[in-house]
Amino acid sequence: MWRYAYPGSDDGKSAKITWGLIKRVLAYANPYRREITITLVLILFTSGLGLLTPLIFRDLIDNTLPNGDVGRLNLLALALIIIPVLTSVLGIFNRRLNSIIGEGVIYDLRRGLFAHLQRMSLRFFTNTKSGELMSRLNNDVVNAQNAISNTIVGIITNAVTLVATLIVMLTLEWRLTLIGLAIFPLFVVAARLIGRKLRDIAREAMDINAEMNAMMNETLNISGALLIKLFGRANVETRRFESRAARVRDIGTRRSVMGSQFWAILGAVGVIGTALVYWVGGHLVLSGVFTVGTIVAFAAYLGQLYGPLEYLINVPVEFSTSMVSFERVFEVVDLPVEIDEKPNAIDLKDVRGEMTFENVTFRYQPATSGLLSEVHRYGRVENVTAVLSGGKGKSTVVNSEEKAPVSTQARDTALEGISFTVKPGQLLALVGPSGAGKTTMTYLIPRLYDPSEGRILLDGYDLRDLTLESLTNAIGMVTQETYLFHDTIKTNLLYARMDATQAEVEAACRAANIHDFIMDLSDGYDTIVGERGYRLSGGEKQRLALARVILKDPRVLVLDEATSHLDSQSEALIQEALEKIMHNRTSIVIAHRLSTILAADQILVMDRGRIIEHGTHADLLERGGMYANLYETQFRSQREAASAPARA
Questions:
Q1: Do residues 329 and 141 lie in contact, with contact meaning Cβ atoms separated by under 8 Å?
Q2: What is the CATH number of domain 19-333?
Q3: Tens digits of per-residue pLDDT, 271-280?
Q4: Rounded to 5 degrees, what angle do the CA atoms 254, 269, 250 make?
Q5: What architecture is domain 423-451+463-647?
Q6: How far apart are CA 628 and CA 621, in angstroms?
Q7: How do strand 586-590 and strand 556-560 relate by DSSP bridges?
Q8: pLDDT (0 to 100) of residue 504
């Protein structure tokens, strides 16, 4: 994995710009070679035009005016008009080329960054704040492109101007040139004193902005807003935001003030150099060594010398600031892809739907590995890890007091030694207490995670040997929490199959018992569902989710059929839709309904990540184990409720 270090500082802020880093940055400029070449030619031409003006002033003072040459005066005056106009026109064209390069780099960085994020595992997103990712995609990408479109171009422009100006100045008067360069060490001292602080402030500003963005992403969405309102925490969150925004304000003020101090010091050094040239040059003029026009031209060249010199002295600050942004972007791009596709992966066709688990064990990786760096991540509570330990028989220490052993589902290993086979077209029901590992098992089927040990087979092929596209096409999953985009009903449905016709969409909705509801809406299938679908009820969202997976038409269906929050009418509609969708498909269902369990070909009873019972409803009841207890506590009431109307 490519990295670059920050030596010389314990806090990791002092960037070391290596040749490897520069080559990687320049690789983003490679697609814009033509624009960059034209830009360099324009820079050379513009720099040459800039050198003509002082020479015109010299000729005007030393020759044209003393000799009363009107014709030459007119030509020089015209030249003084043409040169800045032509320079401005070339500058506009150059700016356009810079914009093409800069915006192109932003596009390339964002495209690569977003594409890589799409390949990251579910674990990455469960352990990373979305606001930090937004900061990388927005602020850091924009700052990074400055290295190519502004900083590198600026280095070349000012270096060419500096060298050309020095050559002309040495030609005019070498003694004054040496005097003008005598203050160069003062520029270096100023840059070393303030430049490093500016670079460190720039990195701190990026981290503080990322912290503020993370909070906005957490609170300014429908789920965050609902939580805030339900607990009456609007004032608390406002104060939290004010605190973060104040830090952004304060770091911005510090950066601005220190930047002003930096340029003020450089400007003062330049004034000293100009004063020295006028003082020494004035004495030489009085001595008759050279003319007044020469010293006037020389003073003009000093401005063209000190400006590029100041810029180049500040380049380490500007370039390091851009490198900080590139580093933050590259950190994401360099993250390893946990769920990757083999080079020779099999594109599985004509899926039958046989699913096999062979001695599957799964452990969630620590939240610190393969994620974004924790360095300079402000606002994060330290020493807090995921609660995946403290299993049965172990005591837990809370507030330094030892508690009695408690039997819970918390453990290091989420799944252990799972083995079973589901034949094509069969229905497998998963039951067990909350936290037993049922959802984790279903997440392994579409490769949201990979097993730590063992393997999972689809039609005899290890899932890791299949292309991700063919695996995704073969498996349809409906989670308990239905997610809908803030868009129309039709757009959300077409997410399953982009080329589906309106007739196919409506057929899927009829199968999911949601078509009539949609047609009763004023805008029908063009109705906006709102943020995360919050304009719809829970049952309506679940039926849309079922319609979406029906439209996908997978051979293997993975389903969490929880309906505890639904009314009886919605539950009945969903139950009818499920019977349609599971017909002739391999279905693996986290079962919450007795009807699903009774219809199951197999029932797996899970506890603490293991399969403790396996069989049909009748077999498991006869054994009198955990399933029998679950039936008595959870499912018997459903049977009694269903039979009550018949008795009445």
A1: yes
A2: 1.20.1560.10
A3: 887 788 888 8
A4: 5
A5: 3-Layer(aba) Sandwich (3.40)
A6: 5
A7: parallel
A8: 92
| Domain range annotation of the chain | 19-333, 423-451+463-647
| Regions of the chain where pLDDT drops below 70 | 1-17, 131, 191, 195, 226, 314, 316-318, 321, 366-411, 562-571, 635-648
Q: Are 84 and 52 in contact (CB under 8 A)?
A: no
Cβ neighbours for 443, distance < 8 A, ≥ 6 positions apart: 122, 449
Q: Which residues pair with 556 in a beta bridge?
A: 475, 586
Tens digit of each residue's pLDDT (9 = 90 or more) over 44-59: 888 888 888 888 888 8
Q: Are 568 and 597 in contact (CB under 8 A)?
A: no
pLDDT, position 433 = 85
Matching residue, tokens 């806090």? 11
* DSSP E strands, 299-353: none
Do the first three CATH levels of 19-333 and 423-451+463-647 match, i.e. the same topology? no
The dihedrals phi and psi of 294, each to the nearest 5 degrees, come to -65, -45
Report d(CA 354, CA 555) in Å as an integer. 9
CB 439 within 8 A of CB 606: no
pLDDT at 401: 39
CB 269 within 8 A of CB 190: yes
pTM, rounded to two decimals: 0.69
- Which residues have C-beta within 8 Å of that of residue 150, sequence separation ≥ 6? 98, 102
DSSP sequence for 470-537: HHHHHEEEE-SS----SSBHHHHHHTS-TT--HHHHHHHHHHTT-HHHHHHSTTGGG-B--GGGTTS-
Instruction: Show Cβ contacts of residue 61 under 8 Å, excluding neighbours closer than 6 positions.
Output: 291, 292, 293, 296
User: Nearest 5 degrees, angle CA 212-CA 217-CA 218?
Assistant: 100
Torsion of CA 56, 60, 61, 62, to 10 degrees: 90
